[in-house]
Structure formats: C-alpha cells, structure tokens
Amino acid sequence: MSLSKDIKLHHLTDPIVTGVTCHIASIEADLSLADPSDSSISCRQTGEITAQMIANIDKSKSGEVVFKKSKSIFFKSMKIRRIYDPQTQTLMYVSYSTKETSGSFKHSLSTVPLWGTAAYVEPTLVSN
C-alpha cells in the first residue's frame, strides 16, 4: 500500500496474538534527506484473542520483538516490540527505529486492551 510516492503503508499481523493487526506508516524515499526512521503505528483487535495466545507471549518487562526491518543504508532498523501490561491487561506495541551505530531512538506506541476478549480475566476483590 502507498499513501504517496514516499509514504508507505504496511500491515502486520502479530505472529502469536493473531487477532491483532498493526498498520505502520513510514517514509521510504530513495536518496532523499527524509529520515526513514520517522514512522507511526496503530494496532487494533481484528480477530479473536484467546487466553492461550496470551499464555504463549513473552511477559518480561521488555517484551519481545515481533517485527524487524532494515530501513536504510545508514544502518537504521525499525522494530516493533510487543509488551504486556498485566495490571491493565493491555498489549502495548512499540514501533522504534535505531541507528545501529549510535543507538538513537524514535518511537511510536499503540495499545490493544484485552477487555471484551476471551483473554480478559475479571479482577477479583481482595477482602481483609
């Protein structure tokens, strides 16, 4: 997909939580001064999200990379990382680009709450 000659639109289905699709808009201009690491992300529930899917994801604080793409000859790469927030039962998708040599970051965030899905666990009240 393409919005213009230089702005490209891509979609990505989460490989484990297949009920989530992310759309990414990024600059992919040949030999221009535009920074190819400028991008945005929007993720939505587009299908079923099950408890088994959530059981299979990395729940560490840093989550896991679900997508990686080299962005330019200037050693930049774009990654999408899925991080799970157990307190709010929300999947966070962070799109970020790094210069492999200096580590400078540009990022964008999108969230998908589990509320209303088969994976949502009703909170229990603790009585004293």
TrEMBL record:
Recorded superkingdom: Bacteria
Protein's organism: bacterium 19MO02SH05
UniProt GO cellular component terms: cytosol
Organism phylogeny: Bacteria
Pfam family, one: CreA
Xref: InterPro entries: Uncharacterised_CreA
Annotated protein name in UniProt: CreA family protein
